[in-house]
Structures are given as structure tokens and as C-alpha cells.
């Protein structure tokens, strides 16, 4: 079984080693091949432009879509991110790919992110991110799309789970991996019983 993890730096695993990334940890535990197609700094617009080549043409069994924060940071809106996520979900389903939508972790204020961080109002962004994540929950529930909730199903109070207030530390990646494993293992057992 092959699954593509598709998104931005939260998917890619910004500034952690490959072995420490959430998808690699989950791959070792579940036996599912996890292909990382995260791109640092990407927006959902960028994801939409590359999804055919990097996901549909690869013909995976499943895809985990996680993006939208950069849209909010740089475009100061989440409406476009929501539209693009809806489009990517619809296209994935049309290509007979099992789609999972990941709800990203919260940002940890105050953010110590330096590269371009002086241009971003992180407090306002945090409010918009909350609205966007609420939309993701409502959208996935209404359309019966499995979610990987990296936001509310994990306690992110510990600053050591972050590198800079946005990106996860190795310990944060472990928490994300544990959440994904908890979602996938029961599904694998169910599939094993059906075959």
C-alpha cells in the first residue's frame, strides 16, 4: 500500500532529519509506504498546480492533504485555501484515490520564526487559522472524508514540541506520527479481515 503525504513545510518536516519526520515514523510502524511530497513555503495554489504530476500520475492508494497556513500568512485569507482543498479532494476522489484531510497543528504564540516572519501578523493569522480549521472539520464531516486531526487530538502546550512556533520539533513529529498510526492501524486491521 502506498500513500502520498502532500502539502507544505508541515508535511515536509522543516529542519528535522528524515528519520525524525512523522511520515517516516508512521511508515515504519504501519508498513504503509509513505511518500513525502511536502514543499517548504508552498500554498494550496502551488499544491493544486502540482497534484496531477506528484499524486495522480503516481497512482497511490491514498493521499493525505495538509496545507493552507501559507495562504493565510501571506495572502491574509483562508477562503482561497478552502476552495483549493475542496478542489483537491474532489479531484482525488475522481481519480479513485482514498483521500484523508489533515488538520494542521496550531501555531504556538509568540512565534519566533525569523525568515519573513517580520512581514506576518501571527496573532491575526492564528485567528484565521482557527476559522480555517473549523471549516476543514465541517467540510470533512459533511462529505464523510477521513481526517487526521493533528490539531485538537494532540496536546501542543509544550513549547519543546516546536522548533519556532510553527514547525514541529522531533518530539512534535513523534506526536503527529502517533496520531496518524492510531488512525491507520484500525483501518489496516479492517482491510485484513475483509481480504
UniProtKB/TrEMBL annotation:
SUPFAM superfamilies registered for this protein in UniProt: SGNH hydrolase (SSF52266)
Taxonomic source organism: Acetobacterium fimetarium
Residue stretches making up the SGNH hydrolase-type esterase domain: 5-175
InterPro entries: Ester_Hydrolysis_Enzymes, SGNH_hydro, SGNH_hydro_sf
Protein name, as recorded: SGNH hydrolase-type esterase domain-containing protein
A matching Pfam family: Lipase_GDSL_2
Amino acid at each position: 500500500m502506498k500513500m502520498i503525504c502532500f502539502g507544505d513545510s508541515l508535511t515536509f518536516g522543516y529542519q528535522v532529519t528524515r528519520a525524525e519526520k512523522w511520515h517516516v515514523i508512521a511508515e515504519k510502524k504501519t508498513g504503509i509506504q509513505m511518500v513525502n511530497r511536502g514543499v517548504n513555503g508552498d500554498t494550496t495554489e502551488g499544491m493544486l498546480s502540482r497534484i496531477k504530476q506528484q499524486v495522480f500520475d503516481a497512482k497511490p492508494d491514498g493521499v493525505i492533504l495538509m496545507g493552507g497556513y501559507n495562504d493565510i500568512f501571506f495572502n491574509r485569507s483562508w477562503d482561497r485555501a478552502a476552495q483549493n482543498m475542496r478542489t483537491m479532494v474532489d479531484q482525488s476522489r475522481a481519480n479513485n484515490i482514498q483521500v484523508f484531510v489533515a488538520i494542521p497543528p496550531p501555531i504556538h504564540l509568540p512565534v519566533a520564526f525569523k525568515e519573513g516572519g517580520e512581514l506576518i501578523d501571527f496573532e491575526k493569522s492564528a485567528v484565521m487559522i482557527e476559522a480555517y480549521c473549523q471549516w476543514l472539520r465541517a467540510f470533512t464531516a459533511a462529505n464523510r472524508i477521513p481526517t487526521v486531526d493533528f490539531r485538537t487530538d494532540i496536546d501542543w502546550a509544550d513549547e519543546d514540541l516546536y522548533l519556532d512556533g510553527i514547525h514541529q520539533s522531533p518530539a512534535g513529529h513523534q506526536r503527529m506520527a502517533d496520531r496518524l498510526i492510531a488512525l491507520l492501524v484500525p483501518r489496516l486491521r479492517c482491510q485484513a479481515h475483509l481480504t
